[in-house]
């Protein structure tokens, strides 16, 4: 077996395999690389020694049995026998479900989560969007402080556990997308700087020195990230990647890393014969993120649409603090704008940023499924002081309205785990740092941050307290109780409608029509022969819809949260308070 490591500044390098030291030699064809041939089997422990220093884990480690600080282990990917013959599943027509392995069940493992995947298949989900699974310190955490970008968190079940999870999902017809973090690596257990210039002081990000995408040595760093991304798709048969905060990837090169990643992923998709979408998280409001490479874009396949979320959130809650201030003045007008133009900020002034922000989307050229729409995500819940979901403050009727707008809207819809039954469990920020100083810094920093916004610091959950993670685990008894069971049935009904009615999958943003009244808190959306109406107000509303497009008549009620009659001959819909309906013409 070939062991290799990139360490361009090292004067010497060695391999320690199963406790035995072995010398490594410079690779004559690849400057900065060191190699050694040795017999090894699946599970054998090893590490690298630079300049007679301590043993360090392999930067490209496929397994870290003892966590980020321990030695690496050999993984034989061919040893796993896949059960499911899987042809893949693309984004058009998809319904995503964001899932965190550590809190989807009390056990917090791949196998425990896999046992619950039947719930998602029955719900009508098509793609499970896993939050990061790379190794991080301790047992429990969000996963965004991973350090071994080719390995799998051992407490979740390690490489074999992830394969069993993906295999089970595919057997149920579910695709699996993985969240990967290329913009930073969590400080604890991060040994990459000892090996080479993986980071650069040329740029700074909220996490410190930037990942080196454009400074000297960046060719190898980019290859490291590309290789990691492709390995997830190839070795674990994953169906796509969600790319965390791509706006934080500082990259001034003419050919950007994201374009390279897009091209390499498309090539692998062609080789494997199945779609491999890349979904970006970006706050730039820039359509070039998903514009094809041949048209001058980055070539990613979809991007999260926070503008849609922010408009929907302010319409539902009335919140105005922080970045919600940009959307709170007329949230239904903003929601109507996003549903027809994708971005609210498309060259408009952002009071939160103090400047103009965004770029217009051409609705005639950009398919609606390239934007992911949602009412809740891990960020929008977990980054709140108490990790409270919408269900903590909204009535079941308003939760139903949110579901209707997400699941009948033009974008690729995404749910956050438990949303489908209005879970009352919070989803709070939790960590398990093994470094006491780092743990205290995170604890005090979070309390200081929210204290500055008026929260009593003692009310902010301690991220290091195991109870914080325990509170964040889903309660699987809830879906059998009211009002949760009724809301779950509503989500199932809406997803079934989306699957059955072509108008709800129409990718043409330019064909969406809206009418709204912010003062009366009501919104109507036309999608082909369908109309969706929501009344967010605490009193009944009369909503003028007019007659059907092809003939006069009352129309048909396809789904309604509360009993409602179709519009009368005058085209007036009488909708109960905090309620919604899906109608068909004629």
TrEMBL record:
<dbReference type="InterPro" id="IPR022567">
    <property type="entry name" value="DUF3459"/>
</dbReference>
<dbReference type="Pfam" id="PF00128">
    <property type="entry name" value="Alpha-amylase"/>
</dbReference>
<comment type="pathway">
    <text>Glycan biosynthesis; trehalose biosynthesis.</text>
</comment>
<feature type="domain" description="Glycosyl hydrolase family 13 catalytic">
    <location>
        <begin position="98"/>
        <end position="498"/>
    </location>
</feature>
<dbReference type="Pfam" id="PF11941">
    <property type="entry name" value="DUF3459"/>
</dbReference>
<feature type="region of interest" description="Disordered">
    <location>
        <begin position="13"/>
        <end position="75"/>
    </location>
</feature>
<keyword id="KW-0326">Glycosidase</keyword>
<keyword id="KW-0378">Hydrolase</keyword>
<dbReference type="InterPro" id="IPR013783">
    <property type="entry name" value="Ig-like_fold"/>
</dbReference>
<dbReference type="InterPro" id="IPR014756">
    <property type="entry name" value="Ig_E-set"/>
</dbReference>
<dbReference type="InterPro" id="IPR017853">
    <property type="entry name" value="GH"/>
</dbReference>
<protein>
    <recommendedName>
        <fullName>Malto-oligosyltrehalose trehalohydrolase</fullName>
        <ecNumber>3.2.1.141</ecNumber>
    </recommendedName>
</protein>
<dbReference type="InterPro" id="IPR012768">
    <property type="entry name" value="Trehalose_TreZ"/>
</dbReference>
<dbReference type="InterPro" id="IPR006047">
    <property type="entry name" value="GH13_cat_dom"/>
</dbReference>
<keyword id="KW-0963">Cytoplasm</keyword>
<comment type="similarity">
    <text>Belongs to the glycosyl hydrolase 13 family.</text>
</comment>
<feature type="compositionally biased region" description="Basic and acidic residues">
    <location>
        <begin position="53"/>
        <end position="66"/>
    </location>
</feature>
<keyword id="KW-0119">Carbohydrate metabolism</keyword>
<dbReference type="InterPro" id="IPR044901">
    <property type="entry name" value="Trehalose_TreZ_E-set_sf"/>
</dbReference>
């Amino acid at each position: 077996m070939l062991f290799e490591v990139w360490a361009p500044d090292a004067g010497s390098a060695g391999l320690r395999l199963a406790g035995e030291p072995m010398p490594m030699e410079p690779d004559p064809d690849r400057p900065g690389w060191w190699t050694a041939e040795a017999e090894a089997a699946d599970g054998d422990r090893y590490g690298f020694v630079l300049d007679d220093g301590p043993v360090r884990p392999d930067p490209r480690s496929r397994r870290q049995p003892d966590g980020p600080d321990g030695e690496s282990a050999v993984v034989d990917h061919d040893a796993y026998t896949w059960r499911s013959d899987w042809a893949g599943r693309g984004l058009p027509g998809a319904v995503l479900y964001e899932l965190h392995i550590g809190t989807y069940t009390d056990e917090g493992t791949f196998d425990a989560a896999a046992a619950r995947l039947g719930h998602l298949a029955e719900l009508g989900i098509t793609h499970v969007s896993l939050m990061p699974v790379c190794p991080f310190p301790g047992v429990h955490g969000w996963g965004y402080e991973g350090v071994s970008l080719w390995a799998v968190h051992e407490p979740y079940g390690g490489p074999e556990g992830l394969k069993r999870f993906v295999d089970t999902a595919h057997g149920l017809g579910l695709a699996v997308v993985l969240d990967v973090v290329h913009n930073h690596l969590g400080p604890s257990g991060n040994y990459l700087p000892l090996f080479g210039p993986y980071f650069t002081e040329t740029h700074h990000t909220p996490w410190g020195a930037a990942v080196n995408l454009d400074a000297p040595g960046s060719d190898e760093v980019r290859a490291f990230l590309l290789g990691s991304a492709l390995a997830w798709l190839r070795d674990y048969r994953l169906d796509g990647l969600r790319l965390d905060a791509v706006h934080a990837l500082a990259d001034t090169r003419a050919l950007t890393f994201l374009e390279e990643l897009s091209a390499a992923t498309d090539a692998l998709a062609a080789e494997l014969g199945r779609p491999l979408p890349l979904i970006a998280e970006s706050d730039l409001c820039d359509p070039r993120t998903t514009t094809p490479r041949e048209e001058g874009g980055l070539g990613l396949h979809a991007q999260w649409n926070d503008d849609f979320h922010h408009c929907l959130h302010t319409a539902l809650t009335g919140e105005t603090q922080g970045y919600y201030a940009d959307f709170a003045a007329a949230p239904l007008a903003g929601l109507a704008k996003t549903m027809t133009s994708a971005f609210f900020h498309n060259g408009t002034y952002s009071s939160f940023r103090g400047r103009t922000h965004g770029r217009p989307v051409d609705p005639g050229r950009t398919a609606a499924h390239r934007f992911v729409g949602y009412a809740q995500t891990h960020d929008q819940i977990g980054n709140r002081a108490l990790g409270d979901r919408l269900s903590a403050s909204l009535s079941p009727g308003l939760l139903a309205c949110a579901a209707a707008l997400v699941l009948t809207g033009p974008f690729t819809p995404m749910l956050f785990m438990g949303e489908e039954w209005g879970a009352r469990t919070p989803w709070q920020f939790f960590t398990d740092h093994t470094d006491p100083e780092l743990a205290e810094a995170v604890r005090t920093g979070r309390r200081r941050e929210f204290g500055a916004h008026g929260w009593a610091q003692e009310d902010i959950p301690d991220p290091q307290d195991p109870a914080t993670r325990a509170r964040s685990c889903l309660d699987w008894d809830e879906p059998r109780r009211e009002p949760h069971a009724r809301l779950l049935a509503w989500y199932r009904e809406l997803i079934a409608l989306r699957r059955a009615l072509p108008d709800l999958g129409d990718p043409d943003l330019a064909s969406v029509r809206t009418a709204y009244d912010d003062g009366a808190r009501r919104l109507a959306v036309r999608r082909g022969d369908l109309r969706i109406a929501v009344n967010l107000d605490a009193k009944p509303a009369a909503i003028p819809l007019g007659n059907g497009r092809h003939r006069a008549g009352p129309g048909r009620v396809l789904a309604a949260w509360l009993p409602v009659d179709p519009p009368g001959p005058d085209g007036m819909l009488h909708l109960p308070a905090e309620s919604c309906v899906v109608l068909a013409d004629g």
